[in-house]
């Protein structure tokens, strides 16, 4: 067990490490247990071995070598034979925080229906308008009837907000209302907030389970395979890319520019580009680029227009922010949650391209800029995301009923798992490894992950531009990598061995806040 009593690490033979999640009995001993009501539920009782074995764990690494350690494992999500809450005792609440994401309503719906239908719970409250709703607003009663068709709508029926995380007021409200299960749906900021709430609840010795459901359209939460709403966003982005392509190919020297979401991580832009095949150039925050000179964006545009007569550029909102900061002398403004406010890279780059070709090259170009970001975020989730949201919600409900707390749910290599808010796995798994940080153009620097006490929320998953996926993209668009070949060669020379598949997916870096 680690020195910090809230971090539960179990070491086994052959380098097996379990990053366990906290349990209510860690700080309230002798809690009563009850048989899981699912065993008498006709829908579930037909399943052989419906309950998850208490010892089941999920491996973080599935590609291993003969002599490599077995690595980090997480507790497998799912229903347990014993539960720590009686049905009538449960008083649950659900809160949604941060930016919108397709699927929020589906998760809300499935938590409510899961609690009612699987566990016979009939007291579920919705917190209105994010964290501040705990102490500043009235609650909303949630029943299966109320949430019946909300999955067909975008947004969140509960409302959301940034900022306003006042821990003691929130926990006072939880205590005063007699809430004993808290379901928190939100991104990295929200999960940080949930971790603090869990710590305060534990300090007060309350029998309250805190479960996080990770939400981020940017897909930037580490460890889990993918966040809900991401597939919907990639799908919806196709409409904007198609429109940009139609516009561009209809006119001489047509250029379509599409901005997609992705503050620090360019996953939506990368997948939307790979899916579309109409995109000539994809720009993401992880891959710095430059405009002028040999190998720069302007030269590429000139050549592509010469070859094809038109082109489409997709860029993530966080791309090229270093260039914008230089040229616009931006102020360091933040939103209410402390997230850096970004400049509009789409507008900026569109203007730069127009200026360059019309003024400097005296060339007529027709550029159309499409910003579908908020339209994409506001749509209802597609079918596959709905199923995924259902599994996330059910995993969270099973975990809380089983007495686990201080955890986030999510699939790890396809298996739903409970991941502690306080996560040391990342340290161990990343220790000593070279990660690509945020290199500047021509400045390809590998960074070593600092060995600190980390949480799932203190790293961001990013596109690794030395991975095969980014190479696939470069090969599909045939765009420049914007990295000086000499620096790549030097970086290769510094690796004793060729890059290994074990590195796939190690795509985390420290948060930017
Ligand atoms: N470090 C933190 N500690 C406590 N609460 C936080 C922290 N960071 C963000 N929050 C709270 O989490 C909520 C959502 O955060 P935000 O960054 O806006 O969105 P997201 O969760 O989608 O990343 C806000 O109410 C914010 O106050
Ligand atoms: O305008 P808003 O609501 O602050 O949201 C903008 C941000 O929200 C996001 O869509 C998602 O961010 P969060 O996951 O932090 O909510 C980002 O891509 C984007 O920068
Ligand atoms: Mg965030």
UniProtKB/TrEMBL annotation:
GO CC terms: cytoplasm
Enzyme class: transferase
GO biological process: fructose 6-phosphate metabolic process
Segments passing through the bilayer: none
Region (Disordered): 493-513
Family indicated by similarity: Belongs to the phosphofructokinase type A (PFKA) family. PPi-dependent PFK group II subfamily. Atypical ATP-dependent clade 'X' sub-subfamily.
Role, per record: Catalyzes the phosphorylation of D-fructose 6-phosphate to fructose 1,6-bisphosphate by ATP, the first committing step of glycolysis.
Protein name: ATP-dependent 6-phosphofructokinase
Organism the protein comes from: Dovyalis caffra
């Amino acid at each position: 067990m680690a020195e910090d009593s809230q971090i539960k690490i179990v070491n086994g033979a052959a380098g097996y490490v379990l990053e366990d999640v906290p349990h209510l009995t860690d700080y309230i001993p002798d809690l009563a247990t009850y048989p899981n009501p699912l065993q008498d539920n006709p829908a579930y009782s037909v399943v052989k071995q419906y309950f998850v074995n208490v010892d089941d764990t999920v491996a973080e690494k599935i590609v291993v070598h003969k002599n490599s350690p077995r690595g980090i494992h997480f507790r497998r999500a799912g229903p347990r034979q014993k539960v720590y809450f009686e049905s009538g005792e449960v008083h649950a609440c659900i809160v949604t925080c941060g930016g919108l994401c397709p699927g929020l309503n589906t998760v809300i719906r499935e938590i409510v229906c899961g609690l009612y239908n699987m566990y016979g719970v009939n007291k579920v409250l919705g917190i209105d308008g994010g964290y501040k709703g705990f102490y500043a607003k009235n609650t909303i009663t949630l029943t299966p009837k109320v949430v019946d068709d909300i999955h067909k709508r975008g947004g969140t029926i509960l409302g959301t907000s940034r900022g306003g995380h006042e821990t003691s007021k929130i926990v006072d409200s939880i205590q005063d209302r007699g809430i004993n299960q808290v379901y928190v749906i939100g991104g990295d900021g929200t999960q940080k907030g949930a971790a603090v709430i869990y710590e305060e609840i534990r300090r007060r010795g309350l029998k309250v389970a805190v479960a996080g459901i990770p939400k981020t359209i940017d897909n930037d939460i580490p460890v889990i395979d993918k966040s809900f709403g991401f597939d919907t966003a990639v799908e919806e982005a196709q409409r904007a890319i198609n429109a940009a392509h139609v516009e561009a190919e209809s006119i001489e020297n047509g250029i379509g520019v599409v901005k997609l979401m992705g503050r620090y991580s360019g996953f939506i832009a990368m997948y939307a580009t790979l899916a579309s095949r109409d995109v000539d150039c994809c720009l993401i925050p992880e891959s710095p680029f430059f405009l002028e000179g040999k190998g720069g964006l302007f030269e590429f545009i000139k050549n592509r227009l010469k070859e094809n007569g038109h082109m489409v550029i997709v860029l993530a909102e966080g791309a090229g922010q270093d260039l914008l900061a230089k040229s616009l002398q931006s102020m360091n403004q933040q939103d209410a949650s402390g997230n850096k406010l970004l400049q509009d890279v789409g507008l900026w780059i569109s203007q730069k391209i127009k200026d360059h070709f019309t003024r400097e090259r005296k060339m007529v170009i027709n550029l159309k800029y499409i910003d579908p970001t908020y339209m994409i975020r506001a749509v209802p989730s597609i079918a596959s995301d709905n199923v995924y949201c259902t599994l996330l919600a059910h995993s969270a409900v099973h975990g809380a009923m089983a007495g686990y707390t201080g955890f986030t749910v999510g699939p790890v290599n396809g298996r739903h798992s409970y991941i502690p808010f306080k996560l040391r796995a990342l340290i161990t798994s990343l220790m000593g490894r070279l990660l690509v940080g945020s290199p500047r153009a021509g400045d390809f620097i590998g960074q070593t992950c600092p060995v600190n006490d980390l949480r799932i929320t203190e790293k961001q998953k990013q596109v690794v531009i030395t991975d095969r996926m980014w190479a696939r993209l470069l090969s599909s668009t045939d765009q420049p990598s914007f990295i000086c070949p000499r620096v790549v060669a030097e970086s290769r020379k510094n690796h004793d061995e060729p890059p290994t598949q074990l590195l796939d997916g190690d795509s985390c870096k420290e948060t930017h806040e």
